[in-house]
Amino acid sequence: MSSTADAQTSVNWQSLLWLVIGLALVVRLWGVHYGLPFSYWADEYHEVMRAMQLGAGSFNLARSTKGGFYLLLFFEYGIYFVILKLTGIVANAREFAELFARDPTAFYLMGRITAAVFGCITVAAVFWLSRRAYSTTAGLIAAFVLAINVLHIDLSHRIGVDVPMAMLATVALCFGLRIATDGRRRDYILAALFAGLAMATKLPGILLLLPLLIAHTYAVLQRNGGIRGWFGSRDLWLAVGALAAVLLTTNPGIVFYTGYFSHVPLSPEEMDEAAEFDSLADLDLVGRPNLYVFYLNVLPDSMGWPLFAVSLAGLAYALWKRTPPDVMLISYALINYLVISSTPSETLYYPRYALPIIVVLAAFAGRVLADLIQALPRWRFAASVAVLAVIAAWPAFEAATANYALTQTDTRTLAKDWFEANVPAGARVLIEGGKIASKRETVQLRDSRASLERRIAYWRNVEPRQARFLEFKLAAYEGGGYDLELIRPNSIATLDKYAADQVEYFVVRPDYYMGSRKADASGPRLLEELRTDSRVELIRRFEPESRTRPGPVVEIYRLKSSREPLSD
């Protein structure tokens, strides 16, 4: 790039940034309607329901490790309620709840669009972080790198806490960099506020304390403050107070239910609910992997190998330079990697946990590419375009393919439509379930009126909150439905037992029976019985199509003694 082009780039960086943010928004909104009115992503439902629960006047203190996002959803749903009431669509809060039970599409769309906006803000925040740490060109490249990141795009489509936490953490790091260089009180307070919001949104935000304390150390060293200056800094303690105030305001349950602050145990009901909240949609066919290797594989899977190699070069470059921003960002990525890779949990590991690391690697990739382009003596513009095209090709293709798949009908939706068209209402059906309904990751069959009434009678004495939600579903009942036998992967009986209980149909995701992290030997045993027992026939199978048809394999079995013949 010539010196004239350099000047032009510096003048037009705002336009380029808006172009990158616009690209980020388009790819995060493409396919945002996926699956609706059903949500096949496990965590979405719980964030939505927590917002609805707050609207009903109940605050879930036990859900202390995740928060923040649902508060915004509560505000959005409140505005939606006011609009619907003013236009006469609903008359009161009960009708609003019945509307949600009947068709929650609008509620999920609001949350998903908000998540997409959070993703775009993160792209902008990465620009400011990298610009502050390195250069404007580094910031633009880093923002572009994150804008096309496959994992970040995927998570920005759904209601969840990881993208908002990454956004808030990135903003906190921006102010942390200002602390390291300027050490102004305002930056201390703002860094603490955003760090507190990140922690309230998801507890791993607490890992921000390490880079922020490193920033404070650099500020003290600039003033030659020493140990006494480090601990005696009024700005530091004001920041601590601001952080604590944010946490207590947005997530008061953290005092009672989080092991960082208390040893008060959860009740058995809360433990069961926590397990429900963390139900797993992905599969693990060979047991818990080596997480240090697992998360190292997540990074190239989301960035593509060319870009991952560039980011590793950027990491090596940062280790060599060791500027204050380098030290802060390396420490943040490293502590995240060590924490998520050393968890003792046998089930709680997800690619999304690596999102903070991806943010840092985007900044490092932007910095090393910007310095490389600046070092080229000739053809800088052509070289920069060529390099960006090469490193963007794989993630751009993968993201576009994944987004296109989200616009197609999921196998579970196809299975539901076929089942309701061919199986008589009221039939007894075995299907994966949670407490009160079929599991969100499986075919969304509805309960019959009689089935709903039985569940309400049971849960009214056991857990009234569940019964209340079922009552809304009953009020919105529009006919049809099935007598659902809900099972969990670690409590599956034999075919003989289900036949004796008059189960007529079995709706099965084979991979889930075989590969769920929470499954035991009972799942594969029942699947084998369904496939080999002469009393059972496979009547329909739905398979995903590579890169174009989303969803799992779904198999539908019928006991041959079932009362009605089927037309295919």
Q: Give the helix level as a range of percent.
A: 55-70%
Total helical elements: 26
Beta fraction of the residues? under 5%
The radius of gyration over CA amounts to: 26 Å
Largest pleated sheet:
5 strands, mixed
- The overall pLDDT, averaged over residues, is 84
The total of beta strands comes to 5
Physical arrangement of strands within the biggest beta sheet: 2-1-3-5-4
Total of domains:
2
Helix/strand-derived class?
Answer: mainly alpha
C-alpha geometry? globular
Give the termini distance in whole angstroms. Answer: 64 Å
Poorly predicted segments? 1-9, 256-286
Give an overview of the whole structure.
- By secondary structure, the chain is mainly alpha-helical.
- It folds into 2 domains: 314 residues, no CATH class; 115 residues, D-Maltodextrin-Binding Protein, domain 2.
- The chain has 26 helices and 5 strands.
- The protein has a 5-stranded mixed β-sheet with strand order 2-1-3-5-4.
- It is globular and about 80 Å long.
- The termini are far apart.
Compact overview of the structure:
Helices cover 63% and strands 5% of the residues.
List keywords for this structure.
568 residues, mainly alpha, D-Maltodextrin-Binding Protein, domain 2, 2 domains
Topology:
Layout: H1 3-11, H2 13-29, H3 42-55, H4 69-86, H5 93-102, H6 105-133, H7 136-147, H8 150-155, H9 162-181, H10 185-201, H11 209-222, H12 226-231, H13 234-250, H14 254-257, H15 268-277, H16 291-303, H17 305-321, H18 324-341, H19 355-375, H20 380-406, H21 411-422, E1 428-432, H22 449-462, H23 464-475, E2 483-487, H24 495-500, E3 505-508, H25 510-515, H26 522-532, E4 536-542, E5 554-559
Parallel strand pairs: 1-2, 1-3
Antiparallel strand pairs: 3-5, 4-5
Helix pairs in contact: 2-6, 2-7, 3-4, 5-23, 6-7, 6-9, 6-19, 7-19, 9-10, 9-11, 9-18, 10-13, 11-18, 16-17, 16-18, 17-19, 18-19, 22-23
